[in-house]
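Readers of this paper often ask what the protein records in our data store actually look like. Nothing more is needed to write down the fold, since each code stands for a local backbone conformation. Below, we set out a record of this kind in full and without editing:
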Amino acid sequence: MADTALPTALNLPMLDPLPEPTQKYFDVCQEKLGMIPNVLRAYAFDIEKLDAFTGMYNNLMLAPSGLSKLEREMIAVLVSSINKCFYCLVAHGAAVRAMSGDPKLGEALVMNYRVADLDARQRAMLDFAALITTASTTIEEIDRERLRLVGFSDHDIWDIANVAGFFNMTNRVASATAMRPNDDYHAQDR
């Protein structure tokens, strides 16, 4: 039976003590979020893997981009909805609620993004992210052109593809390890 104190069903406890830079990063998370996300705790058994994960996440989700932070979170929720990833739906659904100020948007994205009140740009972005998730080998130039027609640059298309690809990967890891979302996420921004 898995230890419920662990963030996954695997017996991979965090290093103790954590290296000083990792502890500082966790302290910042605790200060800003009021918790250390379980995904970080899950990776903290191997600092090299944690650093690779956080480096990619921070670059894709927080670095300057033609996509807003909300749009990147919307992609995360849409991909996680298609993949039925409980962890990411809970965590990134909370982020969508917080960033948008609209709890209905977060729930619509979780259930069926096609019922959400989206503008043409957001709809095209999510249609493309859905296609990446369900049938990436069918993508053709016309699919990229649809994005350009609503104002996305080629750099933006790259970012859409990478955010969707990242969450397809993390959804599979979270599902395979039974990663549990932090309880705090459930009530945030409702």
About this structure: DSSP finds ten helices and no strands in the chain. The CA atoms of residues 120 and 150 lie 7 Å apart. The longest helix spans residues 154-176.
